[in-house]
Amino acid sequence: MVRMKKILSVVLLGIGLAGTAHLATAAETDVADGRQLVELALAYEHGEGVPREPERAAELYCDAVRTGSAEAMYNLGWMYANGRGVGRDDGYAATLFEMAMVKGHGGAEKARRLVGDYTGAVPECLKARSVEWAFSTRDGWDTQKYLASLPERKKRVVELVTMLAPRFSIEPRLALAIATTESNFDSNALSPKNAMGVMQLIPETASRFNVKDSFDPVENIKGGLAYLRWLLAYYRGNVALAVAGYNAGEGAVDRYRGVPPYKETQNYVKRILAFFPRTEHPFDARLVGASPALQALKVVSP
Fold first, then answer.
1. How far apart are alpha carbons 282 and 291 in whole angstroms?
2. Concatenated DSSP letters of 283-299
3. What whole-number distance in Å separates Cα of residue 195 and Cα of residue 201?
4. Whole-model pTM above 0.85?
5. Distance of alpha carbon 287 from its chain centroid, rounded?
6. Is the pLDDT score of 72 beyond 70?
7. Less packed terminus of the chain by CB within 10 Å, N or C?
8. Cα–Cα distance list, 195 to 77, 79, 124, 223, 250 (Å)
């Protein structure tokens, strides 16, 4: 058991789960979120109430493993052992089963014997994700002070946004600016225009970015980040135009060739830029072609 604990420590350290203050201070919340992610992953794995999407299931299991869920480790291990939703890899499966063993999962030891010995191989989805730029901290924003002012339920939403943003190549502070302006981190928020959840997704946007449950904070945040990433690509990194598009829709931005002359949108852009005082953001040009009207677009001061 001592040997296995050392192995688990190495594995978790490699994927960013060990030795973090977050796990020490939010363990109970992580357990709850891990269960939620596992339930959703199981639904996608077996097509229960949702389309059967093993690839999506594997992604959700990966997220749940990061919360320390033994069940997620075990289930994802079987996905790698059987090549279901991911490429078959007994080495990855053995690592996941070994991790689940240390967490006390009852079936993990037998499963590990079936796939062979632990070799230290870590699934790609659990490795630290690299991005093409370093997120700036030069403005000296005091994250801990900001978190301390929020109730516990909102703190966890802030942590989710911060954790998920880099996976979509979005600087966390910009994602947080959107989330706080849209809903003040309320996962149950519902606007008169039927915009829902943390990132206030209207049904059309939710459907466009494959969000099945807009009140599920993980799904909602991922959908909002996917849309923001798309807008940044569409407007070639122009933050004001992307943010205006998030509020009013890219059609309105294109039609008015800049930030639309809506008081709500102009105030929205002003508030976001006050929180994220940079005019450009890296973008992935492979996602979408540039706005056809981009050459004529002018940023209207909000």
1. 16
2. --TTSSPPPTTGGG--P
3. 5
4. no
5. 18
6. yes
7. N
8. 37, 35, 35, 13, 16
Q: Which residues form the catalytic set? A: 182
- Residues 281, 242: contact at Cβ < 8 Å? yes
Q: Give which of 255, 155, 117 is closest to 265, Cα–Cα.
A: 255
Residue the block writes with tokens 């790698």? 80
Who contacts 188 (Cβ-Cβ below 8 Å, separation ≥6)? Answer: 197, 215
C-beta separation of 34 from 72 below 8 A: yes
What is the CATH topology of the domain spanning 2-126? 1.25.40
Cα–Cα distances in Å, from 197 out to 86, 100, 166, 173, 187? 30, 33, 20, 19, 4
- Architecture label for domain 143-296: Orthogonal Bundle (1.10)
Question: Domain limits of the chain?
Answer: 2-126, 143-296
